[in-house]
Q: What sequence folds into this?
């Protein structure tokens, strides 16, 4: 994020799609500047503040805590920059604190073309901008300067040196083998011949060479310089075969020696750590015994109080159980009482009401009329029976006289008369 955009507080559309991520870059630079000012020791430990993450003021996590850390860090940076500024307290007016910080920022020559309300959240773009500018002022007041970077020289490890030596030896052995093989091939491929004249000439020339004195016309210093110049290019490098068992054995011995050394050092550290842990456990046990002895009386009182509480709870449970049983019996009795009251009311209403008596009289009268009607019917039936009997007797006399032929007609007539 450029200075013009940060000062003017323009819209995010004017800054492009990556403008919302610029405050994360500012926050990263701010964290590096705070580390250069050694804020861990002078600010975090002094004011009992938790370590700040690399995106603490860029993201909203806890507005109250972030606002307090922002104001405290701003006050500390202003004091480091050489201006007097009181540390904010818990019950201070946030508007007054923000206005004081903006006023000090203007004294450092920084433009503040954004509303102060943007700083009340304790996080965001403008909070990172204010802290970044205050950190720059603090670094200027401390006369901080960047030094040129120093690059350490990489030393070749012992394992690499041993491997290089082994490779050189193998290369030299292979070169010697190649030379010997070439000589043998030349000897085998050459055609055998015998030339006595040529051999005698060779012997004479070799005798003359040995008889002459060999003198060097080369300067010794120039020769040394030439040797030094050519020596690096004369290095023979031959690739080693990783499948060679000798190399594996050497590596195994090297790793074994390294493990033994590391084991020795680690064993010492572990023994030291074991002793420290044992001493700490002994201290803890002694403190525990002391605390138990000191609090034994209170523990006994607490146990007795717990026993009393358990006894009281048991009594309460028993009493509550009896109350529930009595409440149930009371409900049953009230139901029975309601039933008895209902029956008494019904009986009383029936005793005072004359409707049943009227019904009884009506039924008695009805029974009397029915009985009279029954007596009349009985008399009629008796009269009919008497007539039938008389007729039967007369018919019997007639039958005796007329014979048995007219019996059926008489019986039919008799039945029709009865009906």
A:
């Amino acid at each position: 994020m450029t200075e013009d955009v940060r000062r003017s507080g323009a819209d995010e559309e004017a800054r492009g799609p990556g403008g919302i991520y610029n405050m994360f870059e500012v926050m990263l630079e701010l964290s590096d500047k705070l580390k250069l000012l050694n804020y861990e020791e002078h600010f975090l430990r002094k004011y009992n503040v938790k370590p700040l993450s690399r995106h603490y003021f860029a993201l909203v996590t806890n507005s109250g805590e972030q606002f307090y850390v922002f104001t405290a860090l701003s006050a500390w940076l202003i004091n480091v920059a050489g201006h007097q500024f009181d540390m904010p307290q818990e019950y201070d007016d946030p508007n007054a604190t923000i206005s004081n910080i903006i006023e000090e920022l203007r004294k450092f020559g920084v433009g503040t073309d954004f509303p102060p309300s943007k700083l009340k959240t304790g996080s965001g773009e403008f909070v990172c901008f204010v802290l970044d500018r205050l950190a720059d002022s603090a670094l200027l007041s401390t006369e901080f300067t960047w030094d040129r970077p120093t690059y350490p020289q990489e030393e070749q490890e012992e394992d690499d040196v041993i491997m290089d030596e082994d490779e050189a030896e193998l290369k030299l052995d292979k070169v010697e083998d190649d030379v010997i093989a070439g000589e043998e091939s030349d000897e085998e491929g050459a055609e055998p011949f015998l030339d006595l004249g040529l051999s005698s000439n060779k012997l004479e020339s070799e005798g003359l060479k040995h008889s002459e004195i060999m003198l060097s016309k080369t300067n010794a210093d120039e020769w040394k310089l030439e040797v030094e110049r050519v020596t690096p290019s004369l290095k023979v490098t031959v690739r080693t075969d990783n499948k060679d068992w000798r190399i594996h054995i050497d590596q195994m011995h090297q790793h074994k020696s390294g493990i033994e050394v590391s084991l020795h050092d680690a064993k010492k550290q572990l023994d030291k750590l074991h002793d420290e842990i044992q001493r700490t456990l002994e201290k803890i046990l002694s403190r525990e015994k002391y605390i138990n002895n000191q609090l034994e009386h209170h523990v006994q009182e607490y146990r007795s109080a717990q026993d009393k509480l358990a006894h009281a709870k048991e009594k309460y449970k028993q009493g509550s159980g009896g109350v529930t049983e009595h409440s149930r019996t009371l409900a049953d009795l009230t139901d029975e009482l309601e039933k008895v009251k209902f029956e008494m009311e019904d009986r009383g209403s029936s005793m005072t009401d004359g409707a049943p008596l009227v019904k009884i009289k009506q039924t008695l009268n009805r029974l009397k009329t029915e009985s009279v009607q029954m007596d009349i019917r009985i008399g009629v039936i008796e009269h009919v029976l008497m007539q039938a009997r008389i007729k039967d007797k007369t018919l019997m006399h007639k039958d005796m006289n007329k014979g048995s032929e007219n019996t059926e007609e008489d019986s039919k007539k008799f039945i029709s008369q009865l009906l």
Notes: Residues 216 and 321 are 129 Å apart (CA to CA). The first helix runs from residue 3 to 8. Confidence is low (pLDDT under 50) at residues 1-14, 182-204, 206-212. The radius of gyration is 66 Å.
